[in-house]
Design goal:
By secondary structure, the protein is an alpha+beta fold. The chain folds into three domains: 51 residues, no CATH class; 62 residues, K Homology domain, type 1 (Ribosomal Protein S8, Chain: A, domain 1), CATH 3.30.1370.10; 76 residues, OB fold (Dihydrolipoamide Acetyltransferase, E2P) (Beta Barrel). It has four helices and eleven strands, in the order ββαβααββαββββββ. It is elongated, with a radius of gyration of 28 Å.
Length: 212
């Protein structure tokens, strides 16, 4: 007639849930029920749990689900999602992490692999960054033209390296130095007249870089 659940620790009760289908629940009945739950709780803690694990693990199991939350500019949500979800789906496909975005710019990245979670976060941060002259990145050659090569440095984010900025020596053809799929390091030169990010390979100096 009464479903009574109590959760807690050695120090006391942390949660109670009760379903009752009859009238006439008295204080003595409740007191007796709580006393019994304490006995049961102490037995479980001391005789069952303590021999198995004496203290909380310092690190989560590699198989346990994990979640990391970051904040982005709400105006950048569209950049992360992409047209018809193309960009966010690409991040998920590459990393295996699950991504949920709220209207206020809160981004929850979930998964069991912390490396995958951090990889997804790195991509999101790169996508939402306003790059300035001098910043160094790494990316993949995704398109080659007569005048240069396009480098993808995050899902849906590309910049161009003009043929004159590929090597320190003069080259006649982009294909003499680059092929599709090459991983390269570039330095941002700002935006060109068309509003595209402009990169240089030959002007890269050693230093920190951002990579997806």
């Amino acid at each position: 007639d009464m479903d009574f659940k109590v959760a807690g620790t050695h120090d006391g009760i942390t949660a109670i849930q009760m379903d009752i289908k009859i009238h006439g629940l008295t204080r003595p009945i409740v007191e007796e029920a709580i006393a019994r739950t304490r006995q049961a709780r102490e037995y479980i803690l001391n005789e069952v749990m303590l021999p198995c694990i004496a203290e909380p693990r310092k690190e989560l199991s590699p198989y346990a689900p994990k979640i990391v939350q970051i904040q982005i500019d709400p105006a950048k949500i569209g950049d992360v999602v992409g047209q018809r979800g193309k960009t966010i789906n690409e991040i998920v496909a590459r990393t295996g992490a699950k991504i949920d975005i709220d209207e206020d710019g809160s981004v929850n990245v979930c998964g069991t692999d912390m490396d995958a979670i951090h990889a997804a976060i790195d991509m999101i941060r790169i996508i939402t960054t306003e790059f300035e002259e001098g910043q160094i990145l790494s990316g993949t050659v995704v398109s080659i033209k007569e005048f240069g090569a396009f480098i993808e440095f995050a899902p849906g984010k590309e910049g161009m390296v003009h043929i004159s900025k590929i090597a320190k020596h003069r080259i006649n053809r982009v294909e003499d130095v680059l092929t599709l799929g090459d991983r390269v390091t570039v330095v941002c030169l700002g935006k060109d007249k068309m509003g595209r990010l402009s990169f240089s390979m030959k002007d890269v100096k050693q230093g920190p870089y951002q990579s997806a």
